[in-house]
Amino acid sequence: MIYVVVVFGRTGMGISSLVNLIIGKTEANVSNDCQQCTQKVGRYDAGIDDTKLEVCDIPGFDVSKKSIDNTVASIVQIHKKRGIDLLINCLQPTHGIAPRYYQAVASAVGPEVPIAAVVTHLEREDGAMENWWSRNGGTLESQKELKFVDHACVTTGGLCATDHGHDTDTLRRQESERAVRALISRHCKEPKRPPSS
Ligand SMILES: Nc1nc2c(ncn2[C@@H]2O[C@H](COP(=O)(O)OP(=O)(O)OP(=O)(O)O)[C@@H](O)[C@H]2O)c(=O)[nH]1
Ligand SMILES: [Mg+2]
């Protein structure tokens, strides 16, 4: 039994980086360029303890109707063929939160598929990365009408910085890997979701 996890979001927000964090390898292409890097759906096998996963890297949404239609169609196709167990909306704390992309996906797959939020780029958060959600999670729900079943606050960023002798970025990245894998484990339990009809 293979659970299907689909990561989506606005282009450039760190979708492919998050996929790599989940699978524990650098297999999805990541780019710093202004052009969209991921052009087609990437599928990666992964495991968390005894749970087998297929993790899908989705081309990011941009503002054009064509991009929205194509991205939603890719997600619907995965759901029809293999049944999506968990959707992860990859968000950036200051400018990656786009309710219309969330709504487009939510209305296409229906309420039976859970959508979780993973907020990236939190390596410079003061104190615990989870503090971001304590300050902002309520606003996402009340003002932006984003209803997530669960969330994780992470960084998928570089490993180079050191802070007073502690490799803070490495620690935060390890913490992020644990948080996002725990999130997936909570939602990928029996029974596996069947392909949608
Ligand atoms: N500092 C920091 N940089 C990040 C983080 N996540 C991603 N990045 C950087 O953001 C840039 C874009 O990351 P990608 O993973 O390619 O983003 P994407 O959403 O897949 O982008 P497209 O495929 O182009 O739509 C890269 O330079 C990443 O290294 C993070 O948590 N912190
Ligand atoms: Mg990408």
Automatic annotation (TrEMBL):
Domain G: start-end pairs: 5-100
UniProt name for this protein: Unplaced genomic scaffold PAXINscaffold_52, whole genome shotgun sequence
Species the sequence originates in: Paxillus involutus ATCC 200175
Record's signal peptide: none
Name of one Pfam family that matches: MMR_HSR1
Gene3D superfamilies named among the record's database cross-references: P-loop containing nucleotide triphosphate hydrolases
Database matches in InterPro entries: GTP-bd, P-loop_NTPase
Residue ranges the record marks as coiled coil: none
GO molecular function: GTP binding
